[in-house]
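Chapter review: from sequence to fold.
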Amino acid sequence: MNEDQWTVLSRFKAMFKETFGLGPAAAMTSLVFAVLAILFAVYWFFHSAPPSTITITSGPPGSIFRVNAEKFKKILARSGITLRILPSKGSFQNLERLSDPHFKADIGFVQGGETDGLDTSGLESLGSLYYAPILIFYRNDKPIELLSQFKGMRLAIGPEGSGTRTLATAMLAANGIRQGGPTRFSPFDGDRAVQALIDGDVDAVFLMGDSASVQNIKRLIYATGVRMYSFKQADAYARRIVYLNKMVLPAGSADLGENIPAHDVDLVGPTVELIARKGLHPALTDLLLEAAQQIFGKANILRGQGEFPAPQQHEFQLSEEALRYYKSGRGFLYRYLPFRFASLANRIIVVFVPLVVVLVPGLKIIPVVYRWRIMIRFYRWYRALMVLEHEMSGPLTAREKEELLKQLDNLGKAVSAMKVPASFADQFYGLRGHINFVRARLAGVTPSE
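The token string follows.
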């Protein structure tokens, strides 16, 4: 420590001594306590700031997952938050990435039914965003009514790591259909799967929001000879597979003029959840859910107005911050101030107000404890002085008087050697005066024979 730093420290130490009436050690203790508390508050003020960039693992280019990620990015940018979008194979890979603590991703889209074999204890849900029906398009002379009728066909069920493949294999297995023999599973997805069905290279394709684009779904709806599968047993699927929901695609919902589809189509599918790693900043939770309301809160052919986002709990525990948001909305400051100003004001309230509440009483307690310790010392000397004075109450011999005077001198020297702050000057000089008073009384005592 150089001379200037030592001078500054000495001045602060002197300020504490004069302000609180402390001795050197107590003043240094108070100073260190105050400095550490302030340094911790400053550190926490910056540490608790929401990050300016977060990463989402989305889906393949052109997929609904990717389209929705772009919508989130645009909305978050208005509040100064940059959303970094990582493409993926789909829902299952998103979950793998989020479950891996070494992979840098904060949030991701995950459809229900993906958790088997993965440790998801470090993840939590911000809520369900929308229904994700599994769409099955096929070529056949007659309508297919049961999923078991796809046995022996060439089926494009999506690549490994996609939510489409996970759900398709589970549903086909429930109908006794597995890879092998005449039944062939192809890993085609997206454009390739659609083109393969149109060209007749596969008999059916399974598509979901994590891999299918709106354009490809429209291509299949209007393709000649291609039918959309309607789940006749939709209610049974929804009851046997707990994460599935039944939906109805109304007749004419794709094209009113052409009446496409020509009849109501029963669909099943899970909901897509926004999954985050535990520890996501609360302010970002609010921001993400507000963006989700803007994107998914409106009605469409598969959901009602305000139905999503929703605090539906399936395989993931709902975030406490998300539950708070669903119950009461954004925090008070975030409702009326821009995000950055609200974050700054909130951290000031959270960090520095408690600092004042803790620091001021803490600095008040130190002087109280210190004064109590000093007064104990004074009381000890007063007790010794009272004992000496009590011994003077009877007749004294010359030897006893001399011994008492010697004890008084030693007491006076010990008191004079005390080091006390200036705030204790009255007690210090008062004690010395009382010692002199007892000494004067003892000096006037005539020794007995």
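Two observations follow directly from the output. The chain has a mean pLDDT of 83. Residues 339-391 form the longest helix (53 residues).
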